[in-house]
Amino acid sequence: MNTFFCSDNSRNAQEDMIGSATNCDTYVLIECRPPWAAEPFDTKWLPENLRKLQLEIKKAKLSVKFLLIANNESHKANNTTLLIYQAQKGTNNINNINNSYSKHEFLLPSLEEVAGVVKKCLAGGNSAYEVEAIASRDILVCTHGSRDRCCARYGNPFYYHAQSTIADLGLKNIRLWKSSHIGGHRFAPTMIDLPQGRYYGGITQEYFQSILTRSGDIDLFNQIYRGWGMFPESLQVLERELIQRYGWSWFDYKVSGRILEENEDRSKIQGEISFTTTDGSKYIYLGEITKNNSKSLELKVSCNAVKDSLCQKYSVTSLSLVAEKAIAFV
Fold first, then answer.
1. How far apart are the C-alpha atoms of 111 and 46, rounded to whole Å?
2. What burial letters (b/e) apply to 197-210, b meaning 16+ CB within 10 Å?
3. DSSP string computed for 131-180
4. Mean pLDDT for the chain overall
């Protein structure tokens, strides 16, 4: 009997992955050596106080995503790195965004200290364990094979070769991490690029190099871009359209967005994205996003799924520039 791989199935079906990024306000990244249990917080290395905190936050329905991370040195490290990335929220459901999450980094003597530091940080407090957070990119590659075999089959080789890609490019201040389940097994190899919080899937080393250097054909975003974690799924679809228009410069802009209106079954959504360019010019776009039944698919969304699930897709049916304030140069 042939082994089923959900990633192969999605790729063969030519599934559009946009709109599959997790919309999240806070990432809590805990360095913890593998192996990890299928349910990450069942991992035997984790203390009970951390399991309890994770359940409390889940019960309170806070927009916090916990992930376990590790690199090639984690198994012999005498301390634990804790990274907390937080988005800044504004009023009226607007994301007030520079273009990235703010980062707090902590170096802890043990995993037992993590829960207390996370509580304090989420409440706006300070910790003596905090260290200076350098302006680095933390790239998380899902290698969580105990959760889904595609993440081992495709995530581990990608992680291995990605280390060489970074080294060959001579890039500094980029940290590569193995990560527990980030969602979207069927897009493996899949990754998150922090501090911006952008999700990618089906990624190759060639595509990875373009993302690292922000160069090359911008059309690659039609192939590998899952969306921006700061936006809900419908706005992720709208944002990709603007990336196509503005190219790699988009990632230097200060961007905000909100959903203005949606009908009862969410088949039609009105969204707004505004941004300020590096020269101070300001633009506002309005877009209509609608369900696209021709692109929607019935698929097994994980390797262990026993039945198909509806993978609903959206498309931008209209996009218009409604306000523009360009900076005049004399």
1. 7
2. bbbbbbbeeebbbb
3. E---S-EEEEEE--TTT-HHIIIIIHHHHHHHHHHHHHHT--SEEEEEES
4. 92
pLDDT at 330: 39
Kindly state the helix (H) or strand (E) to which residue 29 belongs, with its residue range.
strand 26-31
Q: Which residue has the tokens 């899902």?
A: 142
Distance in angstroms between the alpha carbons of the first and the last residue of the chain:
72
Residue 246's φ and ψ, nearest 5 degrees, are -105, -10
Sequence spans of domains, the chain:
6-232
Nearest of 305, 307, 319, 264 to residue 5 by alpha carbon: 305
What is the chain's length? 330
At 16, phi and psi to the nearest 5? -80, 120
3-state helix, strand, coil in the chain (%, to 5): 30, 30, 40
* pLDDT at position 91: 41
Rg of the chain on CA atoms, in Å: 20
What is the amino acid identity at position 168?
D
Taking alpha carbons only, the member of 180, 143, 152 closest to residue 43 is: 180
Q: Look at strands 130-131 and 137-142 and give their pairing.
A: unpaired
- Token output for 184: 């979207």
Percent of the chain at pLDDT above 70? 95
Predicted TM-score (pTM) above 0.90: yes
- β-bridge pairing 174-179 and 137-142: parallel
Phi and psi at 101, nearest 5°, equal -80, 150
Helices (H) and strands (E) in the chain, counts: 8, 16
Superfamily name and number for 6-232 = Glutaredoxin (3.40.30.10)
